Amino acid sequence: MLSITNIGKALRAALSVSFVAVLVQALSFVANLIVIRFLSISDYALLTSSLSILGVMGAIADAGVSQAALTVGGRHYSNPEARAFILQQCRRFIYKTAALSGLIIIPIWSALTLRLAVPPSSIIPTGFVLFGGFTVTIGLSIFRTYLLLEQKRNVVQVWDVAKTAARLLLLVSGISLFPSASYVLICGVLVEFASYIGFRSLLKPLLTANPIAMPSILAEIRAVYFRVLPSALYKAISSQVFLLLLIFFGRVASVAGAGVLGKFQQVFIFVPSIVYFLLSPTLANCHDRTKKRRLLLSFSLIATIAGFSICFMLIVLAKPILALYGQQYIQLVPEMRIFMVASALTASAGAVLSLVNSYGWVMPPQLLISSDLIFTAAAIASCDVSNLHGFVSMSLTLNAGALATVVGWYLYCIVAKVPDSLAATEGQSIV
């Protein structure tokens, strides 16, 4: 039987572990509030499309590289020379993939901005800041991964709070004078560049080392990269497909509305934060089979309850929260309520999948991707891609399908008595 006391202790520990994530989200909420209130609808639509493209570009550039750094670096953690070699090789690798990503994405971004009928006076500075900033900070994801590998998680968390506060300060001090998408992007680029410099200084001994060539380790990096690449690329593109369709076929107001709703989705980072920092490591380190099975169920319930509790709170407060962003967004209450349910579904699906994988029942990527493609196609076929209501309905359809797929895999593993020692190499998690 599940112990209420144990569940309560887990919840209290999870709340403590997630404090940094909650603080970052609180600061981000204030920053987003300032941005949305000062920017016009057309400028905010431009910012939304630019951030969407930036996310895709960064994900494509990093697809598999950080995972290779983490996996191979963990294998050779006791060898300082090998760690230096891995970091340097992955850094070179990501710059090559970033160049390819830019060549693919720049024409798409140009087409999207023209579709939104954004004036050239806004497009040119925004594009310069967007792609210039991306070039400067592209190595940041590798540095973050390696700092986590070097057991400097607290440094990363404190820095995340500091940079979010710094971005908020920059926005407060200047957005009233420069109310544009390009200024908002400049603020983001400046704090990310500061992060890049700070993280680079922490890793300087490894970056400035002169390790000997290690062909076998280089082969390991490439093997992990190419194994993870297909699912990572799919995740990068699929995560933005509905928004990209809305940008191509919808109106500027709908794109701006989608950007506003997307900010509320970030609140659900609390759920994966609990899973990542506390629940998954606890589950993976448990060696009592009976206790481990109970933990899997109780942790899955905790993550799901947390997600839908956030959803309920945002649904109840939808109208007053939207009023903070401006009177022009109050009409989004029905769409916001649908989107919050969709966000709770995807947070729960990701959390349960991560826990099931940590247990040892790694879902094969072909199963996850094929089911995702089916529900994506069903969502696009059944919803109007040119308006905001269709956008949130597509998200609801897809995320409900994702949760159903994960729960189905969980039940299959129980009924089929799949051993929990299933090797992680049989599949890759997509969370």
Can you walk me through this structure?
The protein is mainly α. It is built from 19 helices and no strands. Helix 3 runs parallel beside helix 6 and helix 7 crosses helix 9. The longest helix has 36 residues. The protein is globular and about 55 Å long. The C terminus is likely disordered.
Concise overview:
By secondary structure, this protein is an all-alpha fold. Helices cover 81% and strands 0% of the residues.
Q: Indicate the overall shape.
A: globular
Radius of gyration of CA atoms, rounded to a whole number: 22 Å
- Written as H for each helix and E for each strand, in order along the chain, the element string is HHHHHHHHHHHHHHHHHHH
The low-confidence runs, each spanning 5 or more residues with pLDDT under 50, are: 421-431
Share of residues in helices: over 70%
Terminal Cα span:
29 Å
Count of extended strands: 0
- Individual helix count: 19
Provide the descriptors you would attach to this structure in a database record.
disordered C terminus, 431 residues, mainly alpha
Fold topology:
Layout: H1 4-17, H2 19-38, H3 41-62, H4 65-75, H5 80-115, H6 120-137, H7 140-149, H8 153-174, H9 181-202, H10 204-207, H11 215-238, H12 241-249, H13 252-265, H14 270-284, H15 289-316, H16 318-325, H17 333-359, H18 365-382, H19 388-415
